[in-house]
């Protein structure tokens, strides 16, 4: 049930954000204002504080529901499963790399290097995808619909101009798109728990969250199904532990466990 609710909520937010990016729904712009890094950089203390409070209470729900780049990676994983089952395994966290990437982002942001900082900031990364790939694709579809309507004797739709917003930016977006898709298909949320500065900060806030994914040692039979389903690779079955700082609250493990050994409470 929790996994289904998470997917429905993530789909609603993802669709709303994409409609906003493509200019079809100005009313969904509020979803952009609750993105954590932009809210912090704009001193939107209400939005940033709300995300931080939820994370400290219940973990990194933000990363699986609100972050568009996180949902994009989940879509890549879903597409992979159409061809081959994704089996993950527990791997220790890379704390030094996470801290270094987060520190680099903060230094660049404070020193006027926002463009460089945006290379690893999730909302900026996904914004480039939407601007350079999805917006032109939407324009192509709109123009095709306009041509079809005109052929049927209803020339009421206007065609949209298709243009490239700079070849250098397009190249950065293309490399990021391919790299993230490959990493997500290979190692799930590796980017979120290694490079992403938002993941590093929220991971720190969620480490002691009272509402958490719990592994019941009395019910666990060490089958490893929960670890295979964990795209964050944070469930250590051998030692009966879950790395709360890396868990993105996808709830895949709850459905994978056949003995009721995994819970969120």
3D architecture notes:
- This protein is mainly alpha-helical and 265 residues long.
- The chain has one domain (2-125, 167-264).
- The chain contains 13 helices and 4 strands.
- The protein has helices at 2-21, 30-33, 36-41, 45-58, 61-65, 68-81, 95-110, 114-117, 122-151, 167-187, 197-206, 225-229, 252-256, and strands at 213-215, 235-236, 241-242, 262-264.
- The strands form 2 sheets. It has a two-stranded antiparallel sheet.
- Strand 2 (235-236) and strand 3 form a beta hairpin.
- Helix 6 (68-81) packs across helix 9 (122-151) and helix 6 packs across helix 10 (167-187).
- The longest helix has 30 residues, at 122-151.
- The chain is globular.
- 35% of the residues are buried.
- The model has no long low-confidence stretch (mean pLDDT 88).
Please state the overall shape, judged from the principal axes of the Cα atoms: globular
Radius of gyration: 20 Å
Spatial sequence of strands, sheet with the most strands: 1-4
Unreliable stretches = none
Whole-number mean pLDDT:
88
**Strand-residue fraction?**
under 5%
**Strand-pairing-aware structural class:** mainly alpha
In which range does the helix fraction lie? 55-70%
Main beta sheet = 2 strands, antiparallel
Summed up, the domain count is 1
Cα distance, first to last residue?
14 Å
Order of helices and strands: HHHHHHHHHHHEHEEHE
How many DSSP H or I helices? 13
Total strands: 4
